[in-house]
Design goal:
The chain folds into two domains: about 20-180, DHBP synthase (Alpha-Beta Complex); about 195-280 and about 320-380, GTP cyclohydrolase II (Rossmann fold, 3-Layer(aba) Sandwich). It has 14 helices and 14 strands. It has helices at about 20-35, 60-65, 80-85, 105-110, 135-145, 165-170, 245-250, 260-270, 280-285, 290-300, 305-310, 320-330, 340-350, 370-380; strands at about 40, 50-55, 75-80, 95-100, 125-130, 150-160, 175, 195-200, 210-215, 220-230, 235-245, 275-280, 335-340, 355-360. The chain has about 400 residues and is an alpha/beta fold. Helix 1 packs across helix 5 and helix 10 crosses helix 11 (about 305-310). The strands form two sheets. It has a seven-stranded mixed β-sheet. Strands 8-9-10-12-11-13-14 form a seven-stranded mixed β-sheet, sandwiched between helices.
Length: about 400
């Protein structure tokens, strides 16, 4: 079920190495998040320039400036998951929607699920383009996910001769298409995190506790390893991978069981020592804004997986490669994993770690999260069944 949105970056141009390509992609991601369009060009100097604008950060003034009666209308690039929700149930790859006029920010954002009422269908006159998205456009969609935006782009086509004028009008990031490839799982390439700082932080469950901060070399991601007690590194170390959940971990939300699992995990680790990896992957990797959008969709009747898919995401967008990098830097290669999720076990083993045991974490189930945990068990393969609570209950990690 896991489909982490890691980008494999290559540089076919002889003067651009992998590090430079990653920096350019990071800049493009930042531009999209800030609401500024970016340009893609091919190696053919006569080929049209594609201007991409993230639908979530699009505004009316920007749209009016980019629309031109003398050019073709922009196209809407959507993921396969979102395309299926608005009328193309057979879509298996990102699709391009040809929009009819008039084009407004509100209509485009509703089609892309940015606004409430996201289970909207395309209007009469909108149609799907016969060709599929290019690898470069798929890569651009992956960048919107990494920026924690709704994965949807408005694509404008300009003649190559228009590029100098565009550059004069505004600061525009221009990226060669051969520097972007499709977003594909990169399970065998653990994220090269940078160990930044650490400190002793006594906590309620264990006074002897060390926090170690790791930072991603590109982007804004930061992850924390919490070394609880004094784990014996000569033996398999108990480890919990915990994706951040502001609502559950901080506020004690009853819509999920994340906060309960966090506290149970820390208590278990405190018994004999271990490590909790607190990963910056809110909302199964979609970000807090999209998590709240998904809650609105769940209130309208969708389950947790279909709500994410309605927004254009896969069932799970998390990438546990950072966890592999963190453990290896801590000198840990053999672990006992605190989880009910078999996919985490598979991921750790593919990353070169030895998982010798699985320790279940059975969190309480209440009337607010019963459907959530039941869905995760039935549709995502989470394998440990918890004791029934109020007649219903499946624990998941």
């Amino acid at each position: 079920m896991m489909n982490p949105p890691s980008l494999n970056v290559h540089a076919s141009a002889p003067n651009v190495n992998q590090g430079q390509a990653a920096i350019r992609l990071d800049r493009m991601q930042t531009e999209l998040r800030r609401g500024r369009p970016v340009a893609l060009r091919t190696a053919d100097p006569a080929a049209p320039i594609l201007l991409l604008a993230a639908v979530e950060t699009l505004n009316a003034a920007q749209l009016a400036e980019l629309l031109d009666p003398s050019r073709a209308l922009p196209r809407l690039l959507l993921t396969a998951e979102r395309s299926r929700f608005i009328g193309w149930p057979q879509a298996s790859v990102p699709r391009i929607l040809l929009l009819k006029a008039p084009i407004t920010v509100e209509r485009v954002q509703r089609l892309a699920a940015v606004l409430p009422g996201a289970i909207a269908t395309a209007e009469h006159g909108d149609r799907i383009e016969s060709q599929t998205a290019t690898p470069a456009l798929e890569g651009a969609l992956a960048l919107t996910k990494r920026a924690r935006l709704v994965p949807a782009l408005l694509v404008f086509e300009f003649p190559a001769a228009a590029l100098p004028g565009l550059l004069q009008r505004e600061v525009l990031q221009v990226l060669d298409t051969d520097l972007i490839v499709s977003a594909t799982p990169a399970h065998d390439v653990p994220a090269g995190l940078i160990r930044v700082s650490d400190a002793q932080v006594p906590i309620a469950a264990c006074e002897h506790c060390t926090l170690v901060l790791f930072r991603e070399p590109h982007g804004e991601g930061e992850h924390v390893a919490i070394v609880v007690g004094q784990p014996d590194l000569s033996r398999p170390v108990p480890v919990r991978l915990h994706s951040a959940c502001l609502t559950g971990d901080l506020l004690g939300s009853m819509r999920c069981d994340c906060g309960d699992q966090l506290r149970l995990g820390v208590e278990r680790l405190a018994e004999s020592g271990g490590v909790l990896l607190y990963l910056s992957q809110e909302g199964r990797g979609t970000g807090l804004a999209n998590k709240l959008r998904a809650y609105r969709l769940q209130d309208a009747g969708l389950d947790t997986i279909d709500a994410d898919r309605c927004l254009g995401f896969s069932a799970d967008e998390r990438d546990f490669a950072p966890a592999i990098s963190m453990l290896k830097q801590l000198g840990i290669s053999r672990i006992r994993l605190l989880t009910n999720n078999p996919h985490k076990i598979e991921f750790m083993r593919r990353g070169g770690l030895e998982v010798v045991d699985r320790i279940p974490l059975l969190a309480p189930v209440n009337r607010h999260n019963a459907r959530y945990v039941q869905t995760k068990h039935e549709r995502a393969g989470h394998c440990t069944r918890a004791p029934l609570a109020a007649g219903v209950g499946i624990a998941e990690s």
